[in-house]
Amino acid sequence: MDGPSLAIRFSLAVWVGGSVLVILAAPVVFREIASRDRAGAVFGEILRRFEIVKQVLSLVLVVGVFATLERGGRLGGSLTIAAVGIFVAIATNVYLAMVLRPRMKYFQMKVGSFDRAAPDDPWKARFDRLHRRSSRIFSLGALAAAVGLALWP
Which of 3, 84, 102, 104 is the most buried (most CB within 10 A)? Predict the structure, then answer.
């Protein structure tokens, strides 16, 4: 296995493993920390740090794919599917970091406290909708990275 392929596989393994850890940790954090505000702050910081890691991994992945193609690697079959998986994983992280999380932070600011928010608070409802979307997008990115990892030669 050459350097770029090793870097790609390592980056995807960290991405997938970190995503699994985040998915497993979320319900524990929100169950064990009584305040939804505090749990959200703790878990939000975990997500923010993992997004930074994924930005670095994204750079490694892009450079690795281009290095592979530059060395004469040809897209076709499983390599094409792996490359699409890598692209989708990167795109989901960019969308989460640049679009959804800032909007969620704004809605969170408008709610003030989730511990004291009324069940019918319109800002809370908007936040909850974006939260569900962000969870699906996060999972899609993890799945796409797993496809890339499974199919990259």
Answer: 104
Q: What is the pLDDT along the chain (153 residues), one digit of tens a residue?
A: 688 899 999 999 999 999 999 999 999 999 999 999 999 999 999 999 999 999 999 999 999 999 988 887 677 788 889 999 999 999 999 999 999 999 999 999 999 999 999 999 999 999 999 999 999 999 999 999 999 999 998
Judge if pTM exceeds 0.85: yes
Find how far residue 35's CA is from the centre of its chain. Answer: 25
Burial class (CB in 10 A: 0-12, 13-18, 19+), 152: buried
Residue entry with tokens 């569900």? 132
Rg (CA), the chain: 18
CA distance 26 to 142: 15
| Rounded Cα gap, residues 78 and 86, in angstroms | 12
What is the rounded distance in angstroms from the CA atom of residue 79 to the CA atom of residue 77?
Answer: 6
At residue 20, what is the residue type? V
